[in-house]
Amino acid sequence: MTGKNEIKKALSDVVAGEILYDEPMSQHTSLAVGGNADALVLIKSENQLVEIIKKLKEKEINFLPVGNLTNIIVRDGGYRGAILLMTGMKKISYEYTPEVGYLISAQAGAALVKVVNMSVSNELTGLEFCAGIPGTVGGALWMNAGAYGKEMKDVIKAIYLLDPEEGIKTMKREEISFSYRRTLLPPDTIILGAQFKLKKGEREKIKKKINEILQWRQKKHPLEFPNAGSVFKNLPMQIAGKLIEDMGMKGMSVGGAQISTKHANFIVNRGSASASDVLELIALIQSKAEKEKGVKLETEVVIVGEN
Ligand SMILES: Cc1cc2nc3c(=O)[nH]c(=O)nc-3n(C[C@H](O)[C@H](O)[C@H](O)COP(=O)(O)OP(=O)(O)OC[C@H]3O[C@@H](n4cnc5c(N)ncnc54)[C@H](O)[C@@H]3O)c2cc1C
Q1: Is the dihedral of CA 236, 240, 242, 245 positive or negative?
Q2: Which residues of 106-133 are buried (b: 16+ CB within 10 A; e: fewer)?
Q3: CATH number, domain at 100?
């Protein structure tokens, strides 16, 4: 069962203002495209999240946990069900014990950049590669986000989650499988938080590395336009951006969506793009790559919602 009336009934005791009905997702996605979600629920706490999931499941209402929506395209027809934003789950803390070492714990809704900042202020090294990734801890873990040869899997000690069958539990890193840009957790799992295991470093060296990464990103990425990061996964032996550039597609547009002239694996919204424009451009790239280069380009961005 979906639709905003059913969601209203199911979540009737959730305080008004914490649920936005018929909410245009173009106002929330970093690419600034996407139709309306039946409901966008601003989750206040872990307890509230557990309560809400129980109710949505009872009524068989679809739900989708999201972070900062920096790697998602919501189709123009919108999302039937409830999109869950971890607004109130942003705590980050640091601890050291001789037995375990240096740990940072963060809730799913915490911005990754804040976790990086906490590592810098405590002179901890390991998270520098996350500098400039605009997501949350939950999104980064779900995506196994990475850069400069490192991924989330290299720094986490454990993930704290709401398992669809078993409820709240902690999974140690060794118990989890990871692939390129995906952590292999059961569908409908909600990540609640994580522990990052770091090493003691030198503040100046850590800061220098982060600054280099931020400058590099500023130079290479089209940060001046709304975008959703890399659109395609790299192939085992080929960088997706280079392949698209070699096919002469840099700068190509469909409606308001354009293959960035700065970095061919980014699609930017030049102001008036719809999700359909972006998806059409994606399909054009995929079809040309298959015809001319004999390769299948898979999307890294997550595509949800209705046409
Ligand atoms: C300018 C720019 C640069 C980027 N650079 C990089 C980069 O270098 N490396 C990289 O890997 N990515 C990069 N990205 C993509 C993106 O920022 C990362 O993938 C980020 O980790 C996504 O986090 P998010 O919170 O925005 O997730 P969202 O986009 O909100 O969600 C992504 C996926 O995670 C799921 N999800 C989110 N939160 C939860 C949760 N709590 N529990 C379960 N599932 C959840 C969503 O359902 C969705 O499937 C970039 C994006 C931009 C715009």
Answers
A1: positive
A2: bbbbbbbbebbebbbebbbbbbbbbbbb
A3: 3.30.465.10
Give the distance (Å) from ligand 1 centre to CA of residue 111. 11
pTM tops 0.85, yes or no = yes
Write down the number of H helices and E strands in the chain.
7, 19
pLDDT at 119 over 70: yes
Do residue 101 and residue 20 come from a single domain?
A: no
Each residue of 222-249: pLDDT tens digit? Answer: 999 999 999 999 999 999 999 999 999 9
Which residues participate in catalysis according to the annotation? 181, 230, 300
Question: Cα of 139 to ligand 1 centre, how many Å?
Answer: 4
**Are the C-beta atoms of residues 195 and 105 closer than 8 Å to each other?**
yes
Question: Measured from the CB, is residue 195 less than 6 Å from ligand 1?
Answer: no
Tell me what the mean pLDDT of segment 146-157 comes to. 97
Pocket test for ligand 1, best of 71, 159, 217 (most atoms within 8 A of CB): 71
Return the SS3 of 182.
strand
Per-residue pLDDT tens over the stretch 163-202: 988 999 999 999 999 999 999 999 999 999 999 999 999 9
CATH number for the domain harbouring residue 15: 3.30.43.10
